[in-house]
Amino acid sequence: MANWETIIVEREERVGLIMLNRPKALNALNSQVMNEVTAAAAEFDNDPGIGAIVLTGSEKAFAAGADIKEMADLSFADVFSSDFFAKWGEFAAVRTPTIAAVSGYALGGGCELAMMCDILIAADTAKFGQPEIKLGVLPGMGGSQRLTRAIGKAKAMDLILTGRNMDAEEAERAGLVSRIVPAADLLTEAKAVATTISQMSLSAARMAKEAVDRAFETTLTEGLLYERRLFHSAFATEDQTEGMRAFTEKRPPNFTHR
């Protein structure tokens, strides 16, 4: 692993853990954070010994937003020529299942980063929002797209146009959050979920993730065909043979992720 300055990276068996670590800035997302998070996630994604990735922040803030100080003096030419924020797409494209463990503030870019993950587990202290409009701009890391797909147009318009926050309970009711846990149990719960996923066949987990994501990109007919073809493809893996054999023999499967 590299020497990270804005994140802490750990590994526990088949689970990779990335912790945002800019406490004085409430984990505001600057370019260095973006580069380090995407690099660490890529390392885990390329490691066959990792079956799930947990992304988290601090108790007070998952990430309070993008770093406004970094952006304040930029011009259109600056952000357009660099395709500002585009590199976050590399994190969203990670094939290994990802889990966001959110405590405290997940605002602006922080909310958008959490939404890039496959599962979002929230502490009962979590606050979500897209307050960019208060700065004279709009979401730029996927907020208008992922939030709308997660909670629907009406609620997304409400949050994005007013800039208000919603608590964990509202986020769960709206469909943004997978589950809510006490703040003290957040990381334990997220690691437990990640461990469960990591013990599944990695190829099957990646196929399942692709199939669910495809539901947002295509028609129902095309999505069903895509799912069916991935299901057929699973029969080319050693894990399918082992999984079904273990079931018939009434024993736990021993997946080799091949």
From TrEMBL:
<comment type="function">
    <text>Could possibly oxidize fatty acids using specific components.</text>
</comment>
<dbReference type="InterPro" id="IPR014748">
    <property type="entry name" value="Enoyl-CoA_hydra_C"/>
</dbReference>
<dbReference type="InterPro" id="IPR018376">
    <property type="entry name" value="Enoyl-CoA_hyd/isom_CS"/>
</dbReference>
<keyword id="KW-0443">Lipid metabolism</keyword>
<dbReference type="InterPro" id="IPR001753">
    <property type="entry name" value="Enoyl-CoA_hydra/iso"/>
</dbReference>
<comment type="similarity">
    <text>Belongs to the enoyl-CoA hydratase/isomerase family.</text>
</comment>
<dbReference type="Pfam" id="PF00378">
    <property type="entry name" value="ECH_1"/>
</dbReference>
<dbReference type="GO" id="GO:0004300">
    <property type="term" value="F:enoyl-CoA hydratase activity"/>
</dbReference>
<dbReference type="GO" id="GO:0006635">
    <property type="term" value="P:fatty acid beta-oxidation"/>
</dbReference>
<protein>
    <recommendedName>
        <fullName>Probable enoyl-CoA hydratase echA8</fullName>
        <ecNumber>4.2.1.17</ecNumber>
    </recommendedName>
</protein>
<dbReference type="InterPro" id="IPR029045">
    <property type="entry name" value="ClpP/crotonase-like_dom_sf"/>
</dbReference>
<keyword id="KW-0456">Lyase</keyword>
<keyword id="KW-0276">Fatty acid metabolism</keyword>
